[in-house]
């Protein structure tokens, strides 16, 4: 019995011309690269993507010396080839148009209308390649009164409402709006851009034509407010900052322990009853104030201090061990060194070390686990312009990059 040959990756044969930089666009193109697409990252001669300079820390070479490759750039540019092009020159514009004619996808995050002067906007490239899927990522979208404004993750977290529900409550010390500890709006926008691109690829299989995808950070931020937005739209209530507490579930927050903090994430009344048994306070589950989740939400101010007085009596490890046996969701609040040392994280192979021209680079694995066509880690994040000549040979069958690429 002969085994079947391995199936190609889902996006094998798809060509992506990536004109984006920083995070949202590169996050999308890295996902496409992880799924097998040939992603060509276009960078400015000399400096490249802005994030190449966003350090320290920087990658260390084989001798342990820091290089010019920033950790920020490395986090979002795996499985790509880098070319340098002077977009401001007529020769560079012609070269990019030629590459776009061979591409399936163009990804860009310039200001609205910013690429028109270079002949690299959707209308111009669609005329060259009607099958082209062109994804634009901007702060505020291609329409509306804010369309011409630049948009940054921090700004959008504030304008889109996320910071109004993140941080210490107004009646406690340290109150005030807080941004999330990672550029989450950029990441989510990259994910939505990827979803739109995959949908457009599927539609092109039917129609034979590409289309323009208009993705805005503000749209994504408001959309991903999820239950908080729904609470406002349905109930007319403006959500407030609650620290680590949940507006609709109690207890569902951090609690102090004898040596640190833990998360208690009680999602139903049965879990709460089992917690009370482990805590040695089974009567709480019978108390009419706490027996059901709506009542616990209503009497939050009475219940939470009681829980805190109890959780400080044991260590985090003791609580986690006891509550896991009782099937009550809980866990520690880990630092990143603890995250990467966690046996579950290690068992899942979350850290992937890739050979790099300057040594070895550690990256975080893709969370997409496909049984038949898994993600392949083909290339470490590239050096600036590392693949210029190679890409021209592959895409344009030319050996003369000096004519148009600096």
Automatic annotation (TrEMBL):
Protein name (database record): Crotonobetainyl-CoA:carnitine CoA-transferase CaiB
Keyword Transmembrane: no
InterPro entries, per database record: CoA-transferase_III_domain, CoA-Trfase_fam_III, CoA-Trfase_III_dom3_sf, CoA-Trfase_III_dom_1_sf
Top-level taxon in the UniProt lineage: Bacteria
Keyword Methyltransferase carried by entry: no
Record key words, sorted: Transferase
Organism, scientific name: Brachymonas denitrificans DSM 15123
One Pfam family cited in the UniProt record for this chain: CoA_transf_3
Any one GO MF annotation of this record: CoA-transferase activity
């Amino acid at each position: 019995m002969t085994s079947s040959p391995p199936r190609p990756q889902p996006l094998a044969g798809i060509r992506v011309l990536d004109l984006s930089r920083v995070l949202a666009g590169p996050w999308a193109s890295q996902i496409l690269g992880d799924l097998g697409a040939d992603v060509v990252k276009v960078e400015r001669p000399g400096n490249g993507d802005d994030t190449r300079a966003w350090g320290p820390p920087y990658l260390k070479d084989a001798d342990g010396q820091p290089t010019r490759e920033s950790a920020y750039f490395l986090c979002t540019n795996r499985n790509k080839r880098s070319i340098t092009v002077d977009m401001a020159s007529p020769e560079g514009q012609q070269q990019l148009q030629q590459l776009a004619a061979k591409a399936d996808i163009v990804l860009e995050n310039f200001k609205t209308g910013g690429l028109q002067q270079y002949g690299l906007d959707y209308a111009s490239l669609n005329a060259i390649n009607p099958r082209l899927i062109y994804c634009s990522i901007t702060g505020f979208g291609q329409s509306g009164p804010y369309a011409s404004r630049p948009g940054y993750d921090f700004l959008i977290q504030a304008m889109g409402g996320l910071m109004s529900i993140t941080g210490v409550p107004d009646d406690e010390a340290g109150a005030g709006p807080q941004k999330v500890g990672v550029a989450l709006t950029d990441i989510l926008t990259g994910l939505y851009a990827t979803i739109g691109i995959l949908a457009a690829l599927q539609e092109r299989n039917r129609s034979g034509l590409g289309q323009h995808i208009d993705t805005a950070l503000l749209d994504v931020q408001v959309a991903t407010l999820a239950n908080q937005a729904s609470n406002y739209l349905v109930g007319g209530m403006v959500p407030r900052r609650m620290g680590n507490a949940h507006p609709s579930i109690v207890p569902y927050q951090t609690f102090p322990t004898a040596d640190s903090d833990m998360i208690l994430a009680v999602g139903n009344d049965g879990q709460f009853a089992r917690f009370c048994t482990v805590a040695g306070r089974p009567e709480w589950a019978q108390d009419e104030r706490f027996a059901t989740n709506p009542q616990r939400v209503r009497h939050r101010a009475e219940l939470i201090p009681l829980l805190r007085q109890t959780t400080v009596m044991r260590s985090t490890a003791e609580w986690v061990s006891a509550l896991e046996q009782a099937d009550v969701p809980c866990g520690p609040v880990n630092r990143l060194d603890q995250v990467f040392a966690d046996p579950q994280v290690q068992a899942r192979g979350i850290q992937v070390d890739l050979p790099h021209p300057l040594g070895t680079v550690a990256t975080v694995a893709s969370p997409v686990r496909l049984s038949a066509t898994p993600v392949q880690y083909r290339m470490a994040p590239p050096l600036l312009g590392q693949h210029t000549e190679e890409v021209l040979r592959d895409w344009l069958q030319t050996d003369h990059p000096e004519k148009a690429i600096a």
